[in-house]
Amino acid sequence: MTDTVVHGMPRWSLAVPPLALVVLLLSWGRDLGAVLLILVCAGLGAAVIAAVHHAEVVAHRVGEPFGTLILALAVTIIEVALIVTLMASGGDKASSLARDTVFAAVMITCNGILGLSLVVGSLRHGTQEFRVRASNSALAVMTALVTLSLVLPTFTTSAPGPQFSTAQLAFAGVTSLVMYGVFVFVQTIRHRDYFLPVLSSTPEVRRHRDLEDAPATVVEEDDDEEHASAPSTKVALISLGLLFVCLISVVGLAKTVSPKLESAVESAGAPLAVVGVVIALLVLLPETVAAVRAALRNRLQTSVNLALGSALASIGLTIPAIAIASIWLSGPLVLGLGGKEMVLFALTVVTSMLTLATGRATLLQGAVHLMVFSAFLFLAVSP
């Protein structure tokens, strides 16, 4: 142990989670003044950084793809709790909050996180490689989930408006949970090798690759983390506990600043859907930072796992949870997407199919995804 490391972890990583929780307790239920608002924003940023650090510690201990799955599941579970809480207290004004937040999460992960990872990774390493089978299977499940849960309600006729009837909502919740459960089984047990990072392109590895024309050259990457000793079980458990503390703080602080966001949105005359977009952006900050850091280390498969896995977790867990919560939630539950959102989703699916079809990605593909994401943000503010 040194002055900066305790139990194999930096002191700041141990101090930030409880401090962020203290800031959350101090600010919860209060009207944020200028000083408290700055403190909340600082605590939010610090909690995000600490969450990424502890997620990487856990990931190093359990190995991929379990590490990215833990982060995606943890963030999504707390995101679901936040959505249900806001819907319970928001009344009819929050009837479309679940739809707006889930769709925003899909656009953020499939265009924002993926595009940013491709751009920063290609700027440092040039062409990056990933596994086609893993990416395409995740994209197929994500497309089916969004279509069955968010597109179909616009066209069903059993309930008025873009809503499911009770039976339809139950069916959507069950199918979402089944598809996500099967995906997790395939990712972690049946075909776990599909989701492991591409470490090299040597002839031995090529036998397990998806592309027959993969170049037989070694991919330059930062192997410091790969060769470092895995943390002990004790350290990993401490990091897992602190990860959940960080994520609770991130979501709680995001909820704390949401009234200020709603006031700003109303003052600007923007649609209330912007609130769902901002909430999704704040909640997905830890995964964004983790995906970008993985891309910088030339581990694009980890970035893809985080991006698509987060989208799957957001839909596959939110829809069943909302279906159960609707039993006691009052007011309508609007799930169906509008025409503009369906066009953006279709563009995202087509673009992602073309990006993930070859197993290689360049700066161009990343820029395209970021432009689609920019269009989503612009049209959310100016529909």
From TrEMBL:
Where does this protein reside within or beyond the cell? Membrane
List the InterPro entries. Alkaline_pH_Ca-Antiporter, NaCa_Exmemb
One GO CC term, this protein = plasma membrane
Membrane topology, record value: Multi-pass membrane protein
Q: Which keywords does this chain's UniProt record carry? A: Membrane, Transmembrane, Transmembrane helix
Where does it mainly reside?
membrane
Residue span, Sodium/calcium exchanger membrane region domain: 34-188, 239-380
Task: Give the residue spans that cross the bilayer.
Answer: 12-28, 34-54, 66-90, 102-123, 135-155, 167-186, 235-257, 269-292, 304-328, 334-356
Q: Name one GO molecular function term.
A: sodium:proton antiporter activity
Keyword Metal-binding: yes or no? no
The record ties this protein, via Pfam families, to:
Na_Ca_ex (PF01699)
Name assigned to this protein:
Ca2+:H+ antiporter
Where does this protein come from, organism-wise?
A: Kribbella antiqua
- Provide the taxonomic classification: Bacteria, Bacillati, Actinomycetota, Actinomycetes, Propionibacteriales
